[in-house]
Every structure is written in C-alpha cells, then in structure tokens.
C-alpha cells in the first residue's frame, strides 16, 4: 500500500465523520435519543481515530537514531492499536452503557421527530462516500484477494482500519435508524435502547478484530509465503550461492522488510568474490521484492551433517 492511498482514505473518513458527529449531536440535543447519542460518540471516536492514524503515519517517517536503528515504521502499528482501544472503550462500551441506561428508564421521542431520521439518512449517504473511497483505494492493491484475507494479511494498518470503521459506521447507522424508527412508530423507548445495544455490540466486535490483527503486526510478522518464495528464488538464481542454509524475514514497518539469511557459497571463492556475490544476491532480492530494504547475508560453507539443525528455520518468516 502506498502512503498516499492510505492518507487519502483517512482524510476522506475524517472529514465525513467530523461533519456527521456534529450533526448527530445536534439531533441528540433536540430529541434525547440514546441511539443518536451513541452514534454521536461513535462518530467522535472515529474522527479521533483517523487523526491518530495520520499522526502515526507522520511519526513513522522520522529518521533512524542510535536508540532506534531500524527507524520508527512500527509506530503506525502502535497508533492503529490505540485506535482499537478507543473504538472499544469510547465507542462500544459507551453505547452498551447508554443502552442499559435507556432500557432501565425508557422514553419515546416526542419532539422534533423528523430530525433523527433525516440526520441518519444524510449520515448514511455521507458515510457511503467515505466507505467508497476506502474501497477504491484498497482495490488498488487488493487485486482479487478476498476482503477478509486482505484485512488479515495487510501489513499497512491504515486501510483495513478505515475499511472496518466505515463498515461499522454504516451498519451502526442502520441499527440506529431501526431503533429510532421503531420508537417513533410505537412510542416505546426500549426500541431506541435495543438499537443502541446493537451498535455497542457491533463496535466492540470490530474493535476486538482490529486489536487482534494489530497485535500480530506489533509482535512482528514475516513476509507472505509468496514473497518468501520470491526471495528464495532470487537468492538461488545465480552461481554465487550453492543453497540457502536458513532464512528469516521480519517487517520493520509496513513498507520495510528485513531479510536475514545464511547462505552456502562455493569453497574455492576468495573474500573478494564472496563480497561481490553477496552484492549481486542483494540486488536480485530487492528487484524481486522491493520492500526488502534491509538485507543481511551471512556466507558459510555448507556441511551436510548440520543440515537438519540449520534447515529447521529455513522457511520461518
């Protein structure tokens, strides 16, 4: 994913959610609908989350330091994890609390009855444009990969986060419209509480999915099997390497992959030949997988008797 694609989707979502949050909160003040309050807080949380993603992207661009020699690329994962926490606590748990409160003391919507329905319909239209932008930017890199797999395997967290947030926002608006509509039709405020509870459960679920996926990125993920295979082919493509003894990969950030490998070189080569061969192998790796920017190759002489011990880590990544 290019940083530009992620930034475009984030800004579109931020502008949409800010406008929607203000509109929903005005509607809540006029109607006292718990679903409108839950949706207002939801949009406020989403707006803050997009600001956090932009901040994480900016901080990740800082140059490496002696204390952080591999740079700050993983800060994008840190801020994405914070987004999951905010969505869980400020969005999901607040909505569940508000639903419980409204269920215990239900009241209908007696004034400005047209306001919440109008606001929710307009919000659905605005959120749809934001969701469309996120889908369009994601499709530039997703290809034919299923959506669930794309969310699980994406190394850059911004687009999956925005996609899930926009999806949750759209479904939450439908839940709110259901609760408000049934309250207006029946005069029973418990329908409003039910819609609010559905919003809370939805947000908690999305937050848990985001937290699990981002936690995996924070712990450190290796390259996808296709990229591992491409790197292995690139290493073995020339006469400089007899075989890969073992290899590991690790994402230092969404767009920076580290490759570390022990390679067997011909016994008769001089140090100058080995150095020249390693340079050639590194060039092939970068051509095959452009995100492989940090490469460490350790030359060695292959000994068949140590193959089982060494080879156990060959395909780990």
From TrEMBL:
One Pfam family of this protein, by short name?
A: Cation_efflux
Q: From the Swiss-Prot or TrEMBL record, state where the protein is found.
A: Membrane
Q: List the InterPro entries hit by this protein, alphabetically.
A: Cation_efflux, Cation_efflux_CTD_sf, Cation_efflux_TM, Cation_efflux_TMD_sf, SLC30A9
Q: What domain of life does the UniProt record list for this protein's source?
A: Bacteria
How does the entry describe its membrane topology?
Multi-pass membrane protein
Whether Transport counts among this entry's keywords is: yes
Transmembrane spans: 9-30, 77-100, 112-131, 159-181, 193-212
Report the residue ranges that make up the Cation efflux protein transmembrane domain in this protein. 10-219
* Keywords annotated in UniProt: Membrane, Transmembrane, Transmembrane helix, Transport
Q: What is its main location?
A: membrane
Name of the protein this chain belongs to? Transporter
Naturally occurring in which organism (per UniProt): Micromonospora qiuiae
Q: What is the lineage of its organism?
A: Bacteria, Bacillati, Actinomycetota, Actinomycetes, Micromonosporales
């Amino acid at each position: 994913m290019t940083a530009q694609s992620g930034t475009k989707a984030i800004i579109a979502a931020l502008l949409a959610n800010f406008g929607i949050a203000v509109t929903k909160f005005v509607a809540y003040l006029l109607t006292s609908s718990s679903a409108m309050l839950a949706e207002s807080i939801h949009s406020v949380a989403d707006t803050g989350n997009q600001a956090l993603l932009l901040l994480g992207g900016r901080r990740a661009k800082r140059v490496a330091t002696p204390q952080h020699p591999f740079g700050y690329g993983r800060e994008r994962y840190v801020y994405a994890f914070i987004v999951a926490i905010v969505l869980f606590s400020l969005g999901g748990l607040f909505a569940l609390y508000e639903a419980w409160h409204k269920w215990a003391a239900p009241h209908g919507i007696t004034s400005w009855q047209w306001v919440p329905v109008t606001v929710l319909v307009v919000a659905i239209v605005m959120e749809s444009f934001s969701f469309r932008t996120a889908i369009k930017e994601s499709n530039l890199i997703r290809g034919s990969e299923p959506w669930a797999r794309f969310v699980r395997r994406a190394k850059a967290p911004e687009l999956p986060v925005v996609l899930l947030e926009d999806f949750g926002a759209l479904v939450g608006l439908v839940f709110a419209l259901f609760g408000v509509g049934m309250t207006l039709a029946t005069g029973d405020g418990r329908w409003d509480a039910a819609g609010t509870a559905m919003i809370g459960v939805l947000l908690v679920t999305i937050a848990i999915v985001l937290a699990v996926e981002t936690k995996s990125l924070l712990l450190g993920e290796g390259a996808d099997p296709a990229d591992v295979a491409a790197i292995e082919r690139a290493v073995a493509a020339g006469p400089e390497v007899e075989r890969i003894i073992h290899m590991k990969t690790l994402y230092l950030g969404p767009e920076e992959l580290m490759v570390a490998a022990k390679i067997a070189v011909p016994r008769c080569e001089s140090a100058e030949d080995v150095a020249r061969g390693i340079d050639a192998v590194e060039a092939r790796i970068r051509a095959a997988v452009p995100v492989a920017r940090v490469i460490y190759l350790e030359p060695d002489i292959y000994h068949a008797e140590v193959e089982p011990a060494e080879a156990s880590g060959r395909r780990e990544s």
